Structure formats: structure tokens, C-alpha cells
Amino acid sequence: MKPGLAIGLGLALVGAFLASLTLGAASIAPADALSALFGAGDATLRIIVIEVRLPRALLALLIGATLGLSGAALQGLLRNPLAEPGLIGASAAAALGAVLVFYSGLAAMFVWALPLGGILGALAAVGLVWLLAGRSGDSLSLILAGVAVASLAGALTALALNFAPNPFAASEIMFWMMGSLADRSFEHVWLAAPFMAAGAWLILRQAPALDALTLGPDTARTLGFDMGRTARGIVLGVALGVGAATAVAGAIGFVGLVTPHLLRPLVGYRPRPLLLASALGGAVLTLFADIGARLAAPAEELKLGVLTALVGAPFFLYLIYSQRRNPQ
Amino acid sequence: MTLRAAAFAIVVAAGLWSGGGGVAAAAPERVVSTHLCADVLLLLLADRSQIASLSYFATDGNFTTEADAAQGLPLNHGLAEEILPLAPDLVFAGAFAARPLSFLLRRQNIPVVDLPLADSFEEIRRNIRLVAGLLGTEARGARLIAAFDAALPPAAAPDPTPPVVALYWSKGYTPASASLAGAAARHVGFVDLGQALGLDGAARVSLETLLLADPALLAKAGRDAAALADLPLAHPALRGAFKGPRTVTIPDKLWVCGAPSVADAAWLMSDARKRLAP
Predict the structure, then answer these.
(1) Chain A residues closer than 8 Å to B253 by CB
(2) CA distances to A16, A161, A295 from A288, in Å
(3) Is residue B145 domain-shared with residue B168, that is, in the same domain?
(4) CATH number, domain containing residue B22
(5) Which end of chain B is more exposed for a tag (fewer CB within 10 A), N or C?
(6) Which chain B residue lies closest to A25 (C-alpha atoms)?
(7) ipTM value of the model?
(8) How far apart are CA A199 and CA A202, in angstroms?
(9) Are residue B264 and residue B168 in the same domain, yes or no?
(10) Residue A44: its chain B contacts at CB < 8 A?
(11) For residue range A144-181, what is the model confidence (pLDDT) as tens digits?
């Protein structure tokens, strides 16, 4: 990554993170909020900043980074500019896995069941889409398989919520489909962060192979890269990260799609620097979306996916339009 | 007569009128309830043989103190196809419940009574009187009201600066001051958060707003089955800010409905107030 881009993204990330700590339902002066972070000020202020805002900002950062990285990795592996965790059904299937363990009460008995449920759901979806459409590199069958998997997972999620014992459950489909970080705490950070870190490590290990893959699978193979291994690493890495992220925050769409496309020209169209740049960019985008979600409608918070989709969907349409005009 | 009482009288009169005047004369024999709160009062006031069907919430121990008593009775989901074959001679519905059902039943000349909401202790007594009167079990109703009055904790002495209690429910809602929970809070000498913050009716209160308001007592709703709606209640920030005696959990089922169990909720609040440092 070019130093200028790295510094720019880094500054944006720090700015978004600090903004996330200083803006919220309670009006607290930014200086007071930041000093509360370091243990100064009264106890209530410290609790608001450290227990309510800090975990939320950390989750937005980690989840955004996971989605940006996953989108860049999937686009590189599938050599398909439309690939991203939401469109290939991974997020919806992760939500289904999390819903099943959460509302059945399993997650209350065994805390790790929540991220594990999300990971298994995501793994099933990414694995299925890869088997059906991954190898061919055909955009159409990939997107069709993803749509089918996402619809099925969405329907099963609605079904599971209808049968959940808590009467509030049925109305919570909004959260699982659109995502939110409202009222999340450090418990959710600890639950998701280890899996997101492991997923990122698995994906980043495949970076050299992704670079080689831009020359075509055969060339990559002659350069000594085992493409089967690369695919397994990325599929598992995406499942770990997106599964854990979705289990604590619901399905957040389009971050994984938009971020790599925005940054690709800035890194010279090379997958390896794009991975890190997309992780940083995804974190910035999600932090800002989360700030928007809590400020736009303080009483009834907007869902995070509403904001990311408002930005992402028009961009997606533009992408399709420009692809039609300039077929590769 | 207040506007509210007038509206209520019209509702009851309409219910009796659509029955063709026969209800008041003979005690009904096949009574159906489609509403949780009518379920509770039926179980407390009716002969078991009078009950033809209760709503499907009647056996859910998360929402009603009378779940055990409801075991074994037929349940309905408020659907006309379930209720018409029972040939009921009296149907209780909620004030905000399935309108089309009430319309359909009334067209079959089945009397439908909309049980009004109870937002105060007096409205609990009124509802008991109403249901007992329609069932022909007035003496049982009078005994239940006496038992409720005896079960209430003593009213707190007037306090110019009452401590604030945050009634904090699912999704971070705090109920209106004009509610059973608000009435119980006032009875034992608290002012509720909605009133303290000047909120209008039931309102959502964010964790940050709640923490900044710093009420003396946090009275959380309690329920078993998991839902994201309970995330704000389970947030560690609340455990940190409201330690030990500053938190009390009050099961929803005690004051979901206007029934004598509200006295138990009032006692939980009263005991919690005594535990707060003076």
C-alpha cells in the first residue's frame, strides 16, 4: 500500500473512532468523553464512555474491517467484482445459525454457541456457493447461487423467529436482516474478536496467491501456488470472520462490496495491498454508518444495514451499469 | 363522569346490548377469552366449568401468575374458526384486540365485552367488579377485591423529594406514569423515570440517558426466554452503575394485567425502597 493511502486511511480511522466515542444519546462534551476514557471524571461518565460507547466503537471497527477484508478476498478468489459476504449468502446464513442457537436458549447455556452458530451458517453458505459456482468464475451462476442461498437462509430465519418462545422474537428479524450495534457490550467484543482475528489471519496468508491468481489460475499454479488450498483458506477465513461478526451484529450488507471497489484504483488494482486497504476502509465506513444510525433517530435507532445499503445499493447499480458498458 | 369512564360505560353497554339483553339475566355457561388479562380474571372469578376457552398466552408462565390454573383448559388464538364452534354465550376481548373478530362475533349475536385496560389500582377493582358481574359471581369478586386491598403494602408517607425509580423493560422501554407499574411505584413512595424526565407516555430510554439520569433504583423486567429485546437490560454497564440494592428485578407477569398480583410487585418495590440507603 502506498504510504499516502495508508496515512489517509489511518487518519480517517482514528477520526471515526474518536467521533464514535464522543457522539451519542447522552450529550457529553468531547473533551470530557475522552478524559473519561482514561479514568478521569465522574463514575457515570466513565461507565457511559467505557462500557457503552467503547465496545460499540470497537465492534464497528472490527466488523467493518472483517467485511471489507472478506469482500476484497472473495472478489480476488472468485475473480468476480460482485462477490461479497452479503451477496453470496454468507451473512444471511450466519444470521440463521446465530438465530437458531440464540432463541433456542443454547447460547444462554454455552456462550461460545453464538459465534459458532454464525460461523457454521456462514461456512455452509460460502462452501455451497463455492462448490456450485466458484470454480467456473462465472458471474451469473455465482450471483444466482448466492441469491438462492440468501433467500433460503432468510426464509428459515423468519421461520425460526416465528417459532421462538419469546414473543418479541418475531419482530427481531429486522435486526438479523439489517444489523445493529445498539446496546452491545464488551461481552460481544470478546465473543467475536478472536474468530474475526483468526479469519483475518487465514485470509492474509493467501495474499501472495491472490496476486498470482490475477494472471489466471493456470499461471498461478505454475508459479507454485496450490489453488485448492488458497480457496479453502479464504472460504474458512471468511466464514470465521463474517460468521462471528454477524452473530453479534446481524447481517450488514454492502460494506464488503463497496469498500474494495472504492479502493481498488488507489492501490493499483493489486489484490495484496487491497486486502489491508479494504480492512481499514471497511472499518471507517462501518464506524461512520454506526454514528449515523444512532444520531439520525435517537429514540428508535436506525439499523446499520439501512445506512450501508443506502450507500451501497446505488453504488452496486452503478457497478452493473458500467460493467454493461465496458465488458471485460 | 370523566370522559374515560363514559367511554368505558359505552363499551360495556354495547357489549351487553349486542347480546340481546340476555346476559344480565342468567349466568353465562360457555365463556371465551381472547385476551391474556381476561384469562387471568376468568381463572380467578369464574367456575372452571364456565370457561370454554382461554387465549394461548394463558399457560405461559412468563406472562401470567395463573398459568398453572389454566393447564388443561382449551386455548384459542383469537381466530373466529376456533371460537364459533364453541358456541360461546360471552366473549371477552382486549381493548385493543382483534377488531374484525369482535365484529364477526357480534354479527352472530354473541356478546363481546372489551375488557378495558387497568392503569390504576381503582381500575383493577373496577375490572374485577365488571367481570364478576358478567359472570354472576359478584360475591367472589368482592372477596378478591378485599384480598387485593389487604395484600397491598402500606402507602408511603408523602415525601417532597421522592427517590426516582427507573422501570426498565424490554427494548429499553419505560412505561407511562399512568400505568400499573407507575401506580405501584407511586404507592410505595417513588417517582418514576418517565415523570422525572418529563416523558410523555411509554417511551424508549437509551442506556446512556438512563445512566445520566442516575435514578435511585433500577427496576428491571424479568423473563426467561431469550430475545434481543432484553439486551439493554442485560448490559454490563447497568450492573456497574446500579450495584447491589440499587437493582431489583420484577417479573413481568406480576403487573402485565390488572389483577391482584400487582400487590406482589408493589411489595417488591416497597422492600427495595427499604433496602436503599436512607
Answers:
(1) none
(2) 6, 30, 11
(3) no
(4) 3.40.50.1980
(5) C
(6) B208
(7) 0.77
(8) 5
(9) yes
(10) 211-212, 214, 241
(11) 888 999 999 999 999 999 998 887 888 889 899 999 99
